[in-house]
Design goal:
By secondary structure, this protein is of the alpha+beta class. It contains 9 helices and 10 strands. Bound molecules: (R)-mevalonate (MEV).
C-alpha cells in the first residue's frame, strides 16, 4: 500500500492579516506544488523524509510546528499508527519560503496522500478541512485562506467566518507575476499575534485601516474581472501601505517592493504573513516579468516567475 497527493503553493494578492478578522481577501494558487508520498513501515508512528528545496533555515525553524501539524492531520482523519507506521516523503516543485504557502501545500499534500493510502475517498472539502487542522500547527488560528487555495487551485475570493465564502474568480487570461523571497524565514503565528495586540491597543486607527482594506478587495475584484491591470497594481501598492501601517512589513520587503515598482511592475506588495518572507509584483507581460525578476535577482534575492488565475495549475 502506498499513497500520493499534491498541494499547490499560493500568493495572496489582497488582504493577508485583514482576512483573519473576516475582511474579504483575494488569493491565487500558483503552478508550483508539494508532493507527499507514503509508504507503510513496520515500526509504529511516522517518520519524515523532507526532500523539498527550501530557503536556508526554513526546515530547521519549522520542524516543531511541522510535527504538530502532521499529528493534527492524523488525529483529524482518525488514523491510527500504533501498529503499523508510515514513512512520509515530501518533495515537489515548490521551493519552500515564507509567504508562498509551503506549510499549506504540505498539509494538503499529506491529507490527499493519506486519503489515497487508506482508501478514504475524501472530497476536496474534506481534504481542505484536514489541511486546515494541520495549518493550526503552523499558524495557531489560521483564517483558512492558504489551505483553501492550496486545495482547490485557481483564483479565489475568500471570506472567513461562520459562513465561510469561497468564490472562484474567473479572469479572461492568466496574469504574469514575480514573487521575490527576502530569504528571511518568518513566523506567521507571531506576525498574526502582533497585529492582534496592536489592534486591541489602537481600535480606532485599526478600524479605519481595516475598512479601507475591505474597500480595496471589492475594487480589486472588479479590476481583475475588467483586466484593468493598472488599477489592480495601484490597489496592490495601496494594500502594501496598509500592511506597513499594521507593522507587518520589513526593511527587506519594502526594498524589494520598491525595486519591483522601479523596474516596471504595475504594483507590488508583501504577500503572506510578512516580517520577512515574500513579495508579489504584478508584471502583466513576459518582458516586464523578466525585467523585474532580473532586477530583484541582481540584488541577491531569489525570484519565481509564475502566473495568477490559471484554470489548471499544472
Ligand atoms: C498567511 O499566509 C496569511 C495570514 O493572513 C494568516 C492567515 O490568514 O491565516 C497572515
Amino acid at each position: 500500500m502506498s499513497g500520493e497527493g499534491i498541494g499547490f503553493g499560493k500568493a495572496i494578492l489582497f488582504n493577508e492579516h485583514f482576512v483573519v478578522y473576516g475582511v474579504p481577501a483575494i488569493v491565487s494558487a500558483i503552478g508550483k506544488y508539494t508532493v507527499a508520498k507514503l509508504n507503510q513501515i513496520d515500526k509504529p508512528g511516522w517518520t519524515l523524509i523532507d526532500e523539498r528545496k527550501a530557503t536556508p533555515n526554513y526546515k530547521e525553524e519549522k520542524i516543531d510546528q511541522q510535527k504538530d501539524s502532521i499529528n493534527r492531520i492524523l488525529k483529524k482523519m482518525d488514523i491510527d499508527l500504533s501498529k503499523k507506521g508510515l514513512e512520509i516523503t515530501l518533495d515537489g516543485t515548490l521551493y519552500c519560503a515564507s509567504g508562498i504557502g509551503a506549510s499549506a501545500a504540505s498539509c494538503v499534500a499529506i491529507a490527499r496522500a493519506l486519503s489515497e493510502h487508506f482508501n478514504l475517498n475524501l472530497s476536496d472539502e474534506e481534504i481542505n478541512e484536514a489541511a486546515f487542522e494541520g495549518e493550526k500547527g503552523y499558524h495557531g488560528s489560521p483564517s483558512g485562506i492558504d489551505n483553501t487555495a492550496s486545495t482547490f487551485g485557481g483564483l479565489i475570493w475568500f471570506e472567513k467566518g461562520e459562513n465561510q465564502v469561497m468564490d472562484k474568480i474567473s479572469i479572461p487570461a492568466p496574469i504574469e507575476i514575480v514573487m521575490g523571497n527576502t530569504g528571511k524565514v518568518a513566523n506567521t503565528a507571531a506576525a498574526v499575534a502582533g497585529v492582534r495586540e496592536r489592534r486591541e491597543r489602537n481600535p480606532e486607527k485599526y478600524k479605519e485601516i481595516f475598512d479601507r482594506a475591505e474597500n480595496i478587495a471589492y475594487l480589486a475584484r472588479n479590476a481583475l474581472k475588467n483586466e484593468d491591470h493598472k488599477e489592480l497594481g495601484k490597489l496592490m501598492n495601496e494594500n502594501h501601505k496598509l500592511l506597513q501601517q499594521i507593522e507587518v512589513s520589513s526593511r527587506e520587503l519594502d526594498f524589494i517592493v520598491k525595486l519591483a515598482r522601479d523596474n516596471g511592475a504595475f504594483g507590488a506588495k508583501l504577500t503572506g504573513g510578512g516580517l520577512g518572507g515574500s513579495i508579489i509584483a504584478l508584471t502583466p507581460d513576459k518582458k516586464i516579468q523578466e525585467e523585474v525578476a532580473n532586477a530583484i535577482e541582481k540584488e541577491g534575492f531569489q525570484t519565481l516567475q509564475t502566473v495568477i488565475g490559471a484554470s489548471r495549475e499544472r
